[in-house]
């Protein structure tokens, strides 16, 4: 284990890539021909190709930078790239820019711009308190310490066996949990929950060393998570009875205050009612509440409350780039 960086399981970094100091790369990411400066965070299942990343930049789950040898992607310092945002070949992102979840960036972005949409457009300029650049370094010390203690960790799959998980979370005794899921979370809820392969679940309450008293995941009786679901529940996620999350759904229960240069973390709980259907590839970013019986269409980006028994497409529809 590196004394400076943390590179989690199921992540690949090829020999043509270089990492600075205090870099945290979460599970399932792939870096090919990427240069990452100091104090950067790269979330779960990110895909970075032929990209340079400036210091103190932060990438949320599923972010993609699809540069090529002829047209690399240039990310300046202190950039925030939201969940499943995509930057196409040859694009440069200016220092301090904020790219919204699900955005598709096809043109250069100015410094401190806030962009949204597909294709992305500038909607505002950041006005920030200059309180210093963010760094994952303080959290990395805690991550390494958990691993040294043999606690559940994304650095060692052997610490995440299903029997051990169930022993630590008594409510999960009747749950059907795949051995191929990655879970470092406080879990509670009803009976007969299903968690499929390649799911990633994280988040604990402050009672178990998490960042918020709301942290952790509550899954109601009969809830089903299809393959590839990612739930980041540091700010708390509740999913009601018999609700279904389709393949590749991402839920993020936290946000960052863009009015500070340091991008401080904030809890943003997500509450999903009973008998909801969350379509394939959808992104839910808290704080938000989804009423009972609601249907979220596939590849929707949802950032606002949803009324019960309604069908919504979110603020934008993700369309997969054909590779």
From TrEMBL:
Any one GO molecular-function label of the UniProt entry: O-acyltransferase activity
InterPro entries: Hexapep, Hexapep_transf_CS, Hexapeptide_acetyltransf, Trimer_LpxA-like_sf
The UniProt record lists the keyword Ribonucleoprotein: no
PROSITE patterns registered for this protein in UniProt: HEXAPEP_TRANSFERASES (PS00101)
Top-level taxon in the UniProt lineage: Bacteria
GO BP terms, alphabetized: lipid A biosynthetic process
UniProt record similarity statement: Belongs to the transferase hexapeptide repeat family.
Record protein name field: Transferase
Organism of provenance: Pseudomonas kribbensis
